[in-house]
Amino acid sequence: MQRYVARRLVQAVFVLVGISVVAFALTHVIGDPVVLLLPFQASQAQIIAMRHLFGLDQPLPAQYLAFVRAALHGDFGLSLRQNTPAMSLVLDRVPATAELACAALALAVAAAVPLGIAAALRRRSIVDRAALLFSMIGQSMPTFWLGLQAILLFGVVLRWFPTGGSGGFRHLVLPAVVLGVFSAAGILRLTRAAMLDILAEDYLRTARAKGLRQVTVVVKHALRNASLPVVTWIGLELGTLLGGAVVTETVFSWPGMGRLAVQAIFARDFPVVQAAVLFAAMVFVLATLLTDLMYAWLDPRIHYS
Amino acid sequence: MAGGGVRPAALPRRQAWRLAWRAARHDPSAWIGAAVLAGVALAALLAPRLAPMDPDTQNIVHRLLPPGAVSVGHRFWLGTDQLGRDLLSRVIFGSRISLLIGFSAVALSAVLGTAIGVLSGYYGRLWDDLLMRITDVQLAFPSILLSLAIVAVLGAGVRNLIAVLALSGWVGYARVTRSRVLGIRQQEYIDAVKALGAADRRILWRHVVPNVLPSMLTIATFSLGGMITAEAALTFLGLGIPSNIPSWGGMLTDGAQYLSVAWWLATFPGAAIMLTVLAANLLGDWLRDALDPRADAG
Question: Is the ipTM of this complex over 0.85?
Answer without folding.
Answer: no
